[in-house]
Specification:
0% helix; mainly beta; four-stranded antiparallel beta sheet
Length: 119
């Protein structure tokens, strides 16, 4: 079994910064892609940023230039540095990872961490 645990969410004023972290643990042979998604009340979950095992990166248009995704393969961790935060960034942020356990490759989700940027 694989577990993803996020941390780093909180309340921040507009224009402020937060850094989210996500650590994967358990039956891990290797981790393929890792990504951050978010879901605001009444909205569908959306991709924020993703990073492949070879560090190919994609961002949602709404966060490009403000957010930076990175990963530490040795620690099985992925990070999301969020700068110039806006009220519309308010959401629950979820970490996702495609993990090769040696038996199969499957997606796993964290429990989510709340980010609130008041208007």
């Amino acid at each position: 079994q694989v577990q993803l645990v996020e941390s780093g969410g909180g309340l921040v004023q507009p224009g402020g910064s937060l850094r989210l972290s996500c650590k994967a643990s358990g039956s891990i042979n290797s981790i393929k892609s890792m990504s951050w998604h978010r879901q605001a009340p009444g909205n569908q979950r959306e991709l924020v940023a993703s990073i492949s095992s070879t560090s190919d990166i994609t961002y949602a248009a709404s966060v490009k230039g403000r957010f930076t995704i990175s990963r530490d393969n040795a620690k099985n961790e992925v990070y999301l540095q969020m700068n110039s935060l806006k009220p519309e960034d308010t959401a629950v942020y979820y970490c996702n990872a495609y993990v090769d356990s040696g038996l199969l490759i499957a997606p796993y989700w964290g429990q989510g961490t709340q980010v609130t940027v008041p208007s």
